[in-house]
Amino acid sequence: MTVEATSTRSAPTGDGPASEAALDQRPNDTHQAMKLGLRHRYYLQFADIATLAVSAVLGAVALNLVSPARANYIDFVNASVDIVVAIAAMAMALHLHGLYRRPAARLRPSEWWRPGVIARCVPTGALLALFIDAFVLRDGRGMTLTAAVAMTLPAILLVPLGRRLIARTMDPTVSRILVIGTGPISDRLTSRLQRCPDTFVVGHVDDDVAPGTSSPVLGNLSDLPAVCAAYKIDRVIVGFPNTSDAIVLEALRQLQGRVPISEIPRYFELHNWRSEAEELHGLTLMHLPTASLGPSARIMKRVMDVTLATCALVAASPVLLAIALAIKLDTRGPVFFRQERGGQGGVPFRIFKFRSMTADAWQKRNTVAQLNESDGPLFKMENDPRVTRVGAFIRKTSLDELPQLINVVRGEMSLVGPRPLPTEEADRIDGAAGLARLDAKPGITGLWQVCGRSDLSYADLQHLDSVYVRSWSLMWDVRIMAKTPRVVFARSGAY
């Protein structure tokens, strides 16, 4: 098989048993990678135990402060065995929840930082401590369970932090990935993986190469074992190959057990981290998660919104007063701009923003309509003549959106959510992806803010809003809020 510079095909030809033997005789660097993965896992276990120990100390101190009369109840000299057992119970819970399940290979950065999973481990650890207290120690004091409960909150905060810190000290590992299939979906997968520092897409294999494929095609499905051996592949991802299912299945059976294999679900757009596999009469099914937030998720999100928005309003009050004064001195008109926006469930609400345009800007909209730079029903202009001098600054820095904290406290908006669109623009959005945004409250920031802001197309905005609603998690909200200041200060896509 010839090698072509245009990346059409460049791979060793598979020859049955010889290819399989080559795969079994991969170079020693694969073995070194396995050893590196094991070492990383040991470091991770050490970090978890260390942070659990610190959590136990903090929990005991907090308990003594809350209940001084029982200051001797948690005594680390007399109760050291109970404390150690409580730490062991929590560490065992982390293991039972699969935080060390990845065998031998490479731990990706996302696997170091898993606070949601760690939070779910805490009740398991408490139950283990209760079992040990009742059936192993049998001292009747309940010290092991008390220590486990006392360390709960510190553990939820400190264990992810310890994992994050230990991850920064580790040698970076890069997974070499081979994609089965060519075409738009496979190219999209490759593009996304290439943006991740811990993955490198070596190329694709397919029997019928799709036109316009931009990534290198390394061979046919029959070449799969030889390609994996020659290019030292760490993981194979099955996309949507232009090959019969029987041929793909046979190729994967030859590879199974030698290289980790993952598969993209057929309707991957509807899946997220809440998707679950279930067995029904011997068939493995993927359960599609609900597209809306559940009651507990809404409560957690609301508590975070009210707490942070109230604190932000108090802390930013001097800035709010300064901006209000600057707007008054710059041009005539009100300080605040109030407008009806589409809210959760399509219910309209009046949004608060600092006025960044002339007082008659809304009446002049028809005169600048032909200058609209956005596709779809949205209206955007980079150099809008209606923007005032102060308005240009507060729009670039997103300071004009600070009054929306009032909407958050009132329950009309959230800190993170879909973009709040004017009612006439929101009413023109259709399709399943566009309607999904109605399941959540609009946000001051969101995926649209950290992924391009005003530079986004109408289709991109719809997609990001839909992805956010379908894949919501409390930690994702925290990450989006953490990324927002960097995007705002960079002023990218803001106008």
Automatic annotation (TrEMBL):
It is found in: Membrane. This is Exopolysaccharide biosynthesis polyprenyl glycosylphosphotransferase. Residues 1-11 have a biased composition (Polar residues). One of its GO terms (cellular component) is membrane. One of its GO terms (molecular function) is phosphotransferase activity, for other substituted phosphate groups. It holds the Pfam family Bac_transf. The chain crosses the membrane at residues 42-64, 76-96, 117-137, 143-161, 306-327. Residues 301-489 form the Bacterial sugar transferase domain. Keywords: Membrane, Transferase, Transmembrane, Transmembrane helix. It is a multi-pass membrane protein. Belongs to the bacterial sugar transferase family. It comes from the Bacteria.
